[in-house]
Amino acid sequence: MSGAVLVTDARKTFVASRRLFGGGTPVHAVDGVSFSIAPGRVLGIAGESGSGKSTLANLLVGLELPSGGEIAIGGRPLGRKPNADFRRSVQMVFQDPFGSINPRFTVGRTVEEPLLIHGLGSEAERHARAIAALEEAELRPGAAFMERFPHELSGGQRQRVAIARAIVLRPRLLVADEPVSMLDVSVRAGILRLLNRLVHESEMAMVFITHDLSIVASVCDELAVMYRGRFVEHGPVRAVLQKPRHPYTRALIAAVPVPDPTVPPTPLPAKLMSGGAPVAGGCRFAPRCGSAIAACETVDPVLEEAQPGHRVACIRHREIAQ
Amino acid sequence: MLALDDVSIVYTTRSGPVQAVSGVTLSLPPGGSLGLVGESGCGKSTLALAALALLPAEARLAGGAVRLDGQDLAALPEAELRKLRWTRMAYVPQSAQNALVPVHSLRRQFRDTAAAHGMRSAEADERAAALLRRVELDAAVLDRFPHELSGGMRQRAMIALALLFGPSLLVADEPTTGLDVIVQRQVIDLLRDLRGEDGLALLFISHDIGVVAELCSHVAVLYAGKVMESGPTATVFSEPDHPYTMGLQRAFPDIRHPERSIVSIAGHPPRLSSPPKGCPFAPRCPFVQPVCRDTTPPLVAVSDARAVACHFVDEAAALRERARDPALWDEAA
Ligand SMILES: Nc1ncnc2c1ncn2[C@@H]1O[C@H](COP(=O)(O)OP(=O)(O)OP(=O)(O)O)[C@@H](O)[C@H]1O
Ligand SMILES: Nc1ncnc2c1ncn2[C@@H]1O[C@H](COP(=O)(O)OP(=O)(O)OP(=O)(O)O)[C@@H](O)[C@H]1O
Ligand code: SF4
Ligand SMILES: [Mg+2]
Ligand SMILES: [Mg+2]
User: Fold this and answer.
1) How many domains are there within chain A?
2) Which atom of ligand 1 is least distant from the CA of A16?
3) Does B123 reach chain A within 8 Å, measured CB to CB?
4) Which domain holds residue A314?
5) Is the CB of B187 inside 8 Å of chain A's CB atoms?
6) Which of A95, A286, B74, B298: CA 20 to 30 A from A54?
7) Residue A251: inside a domain, yes or no?
8) Are B67 and B25 in contact (CB under 8 A)?
């Protein structure tokens, strides 16, 4: 397959070692996830804290090694350990623009560093590529930013520096883990638009991780909703937002505050907040699901196609869609 | 019940004074709810601390007065204030989830707080159990440690602790920031119930206008330490009169309308160590005129409930129309 990214049944299991957490209990942080992303497309991944989003991101960039499954980027499999080629083909942008770039380095050094690490280009070429990357990140003129330090920049500008650094290697895949959640609302749109443009005007694919469903429509083509290590719904972003089929997706959407005081909040099922741990062999969402029936305790639903390209893991999705 | 009258607050720093709050006037009636919104550094937390007379040593009330039921807090001795702070008003600080003492069980934290104000352990335990039920936590969590609770449980436990002495005012600084949407909803519902059923007045701070729209009847939009606009939440957000509110509203995504594009407001807030002349929003305002850069627009009442600080408040309807165009905000970028 010629896709930029192909993930097949990826898994990551952590074995908690700290005694406090009942040492030895394995945590299936990513528990069998499959998807592909075409070049120039964006997959959004949403879900509550602890659902496994960052673990999946770390697998994609080779920061964590999978416990099972296959990950291939641009046709190159990750194999047992990421090699330099793999590392070059995927780059990451983190949540915290203050923590992810070294405060003592100039912007120029920060952006040139990945080229240095991979031994690419002469000094003059690296300089030129860094300036070009800054301009692509809309820090113009790029040359004027090269000698500046992070503390002289606003939060939005710092995140743009982090993005310039991530694209300077021309990766096949950009993984952005909550890239705007620490930024002020007033500058978020600019960063979202930048990411949108960078991907859609190139062959680079992107995984965009967020817990904020209200922003996914402005960047993503597809949306996957993750719950306890699995995708429970995955489809075109508008379809998932406007016709959600999984009860968890519905709850997530209903819980998003609407900036209109005349609209009363949609009530959430009481079970959503109080539900306990899932029963082995049943649907992992059943204990919190307002639509659960007896069968949900005994069947572990797999993703099935509800509409072309729109997959849902819920045995009741047809009735729920009514 | 709470009234801030022309309050100004200055921080003394090594590089000179920082004018964090300038001439803010706000009031919160008994049982009312007031949201303070605005971007990072606009002075929200500083105002919350001033309302509780809890400003740090490096901050100084440079003008105005904070009154609780008509009583000027600056005139009260510290011992008196300390009593007031728990019995009449309560505080849930920013990142409160991390404010619990990690090595103490919740029971110990309730008892310690109680003891500091002369409440006995037996009574504290009884109150704690009732309050935890009030915030929909099982009384059994009293014997748990903070790390054994989820973020939402910790946040609700903090709210329960703040209510130990039955205050009539709760000051909550970003109590839902960093929580998952579902947990956030749970905390919002709790605060709404406390307000409605128990008559608690709420001073609620957030940078999220969606949360304020869900919870507060009134709102004040702050920018660079000043009130840009204030009034009933319903009308301020449906018909903003200040260009900054218009921009904030256009910058905020609405999940019901994925097709609507959001804007960014170019530039950044002014440095409060050298506040600019004129309207603080002028450098970022798409409607700026020469007068804006010279003269500071005063906060004027535009109806009995609303006040706006913009030279062009009379033209607000036309500006609102122009503000709908995303290109207007992009051009400024
Ligand atoms: N290094 C690790 N060791 C043990 N457990 C881990 C490790 N990293 C993550 N986990 C566990 O894996 C699960 C998924 O965590 P992850 O950080 O991927 O979630 P997330 O969806 O990114 O959450 P958030 O929205 O809070 O960032 C959690 O239960 C977490 O505690
Ligand atoms: N202890 C301090 N010393 C000096 N300056 C301070 C101090 N605390 C706050 N400031 C400054 O006062 C201004 C207002 O800060 P404040 O914390 O009240 O803002 P905020 O609106 O709560 O921001 P945030 O949304 O980031 O919490 C800022 O310019 C800040 O840098
Ligand atoms: S006073 Fe001028 S600069 Fe300030 S908000 Fe109004 S139009 Fe914009
Ligand atoms: Mg994460
Ligand atoms: Mg604050």
Assistant:
1) 2
2) 4
3) no
4) 256-322
5) no
6) A286
7) no
8) no
